[in-house]
Amino acid sequence: MIRNYGEVMPSRARVLVVALTAAVSLAACTASVVGDGAALRTAAEPAPRTEPSPDQAGSGCPDPRAEPAADRPRIDLEFTLSDDGRTVTGTERVSFTPDRPVDELVFRLTANQPLSVTGGNGIEVGDVSGADVRDFDFESAGAAPGTQGGLLVVRLDRSLPAGGTTDVTIDFELRLGESTFDRFGADDRLSWWGSGHPLLAWEPGVGWADEPLGDSPGETAASPVAETRVQVTAPAGREVVMTGGARRVASAGAADVWRSEETAARDVAVAVGSLDVAAADAGDTRVTLAGRSGLDIETLLSRTIEAIGELEAFFGPFPYSTLSVVDLGARGGGVEYPSMILLADPSDLVLVHEIAHMWFYGMVGDHQGRDPWLDEAFATYAEALVNGPPADLDGRLGLPLPVGQPIDDFSTVDDYFDTVYGKGSAMLLAARAVAGTDAFDAALRCYVDALAWQIATPADVAAAFAELPAALRVLQDAGALPR
Ligand SMILES: [Zn+2]
């Protein structure tokens, strides 16, 4: 299988874990894990919204596209990479304004998931401070034995009301292990990390996404978009590419300092290395391709720019002012991050899929464990729009399992990929055919613009296609939406 896949290892689906561990050619694409039904820490209802988002009501078609919430978190990250490229010392400053009361903050320690730790990766939190911080602790949450755990829980000495703001600073150290197809890795020429900092696990309107990490390198969580600034101090003379672009702002002897900003990022990825770099503009987006010598980055750069244009024709303007793509050398697929792609397979299939994730995951977020089809079915559908539909469309559509299942309801890795990616994309193509391409494309464009920078739910998709009953029936028949 060469299509990139997001893997998510549900704690209950051990068969899936084993299968994925063995499936070395699988690509990770945003993954996430849902555990045993979202044991939320606030007074939040654990169930996802059943009503469409406010801006999806009525006409449901904002013009221009919805803006990120004004009270979104602000996150400042400082990473310092060691000379040997294997250790990242970090500080994270979070300014958080919840939309419902909380008395603690929860962060996911993604690098402590078992498969990543097996590869030599891991994260250790040092100090946590802030005016409202009472203390902090860790929960195992499926993390590898011997680590601090999978969740960092920061308890406050007061109940923070909805609309209140608290500031927390976290010091941590991230170990980068082998160069494999994972979100973390290093070799003599390249170091990279995504979800390398404690990830604020807040789902606006719902609560903390504190499900177990799972066993997959592809694990991610639901996280809100944040006003994000990144500073990387790296050994002098190396190139840096990262979420938000990267500019060298200072040289301090043996080290260079790089910075970037991203106005609405759910997460951050960084790559540092001895790399060839090429850059060009795709409209208002600065596109950067980085890879080892010998890789044809100019051709990849041209294709990336071309694919951005092809996808914009369907989904509207590219969500970010930068896009950075780094070829890892390791092979397996791709992992998408906001305005950044970790590429472990430079094929067109993977490249287009990952670029499509900038709209479906980066901008229109989802809880990828609970509703994995909301990013993976749409990204795979986007592949078909650009490169043509797969030959076995009818066969995919006839697969028995419901597209809308949470990841941990699938008992095998093949069932998950075949259903969420294969059947899910075939379902969307079939819905487009019965609704008429113009009407379907317009409704989907409305959905993208209305749910921009939020975490969408299946109810939002149902609302978007409410005026296209034939399309809605296709999605219901495929088990993506309830009848
Ligand atoms: Zn994907």
Keywords:
binds zinc ion, Neutral Protease, domain 2, seven-stranded mixed beta sheet, alpha+beta, five-stranded mixed beta sheet, disordered N terminus, 10 helices, 483 residues, globular, 24% helix, 24 strands
Characterise the protein shown here.
It contains ten helices and 24 strands. With about 475 residues, it is of the alpha+beta class. Among the domains are: about 120 residues, Neutral Protease, domain 2 (Orthogonal Bundle); about 130 residues, Orthogonal Bundle (Neutral Protease, domain 2), CATH 1.10.390.10. A seven-stranded mixed beta sheet has the order 4-7-2-1-13-16-15, with no helix packed on it. Helix 3 crosses helix 4, helix 4 crosses helix 5 and helix 5 packs across helix 7. The chain is globular and about 60 Å long. It binds zinc ion. Zinc ion binds next to helix 5.
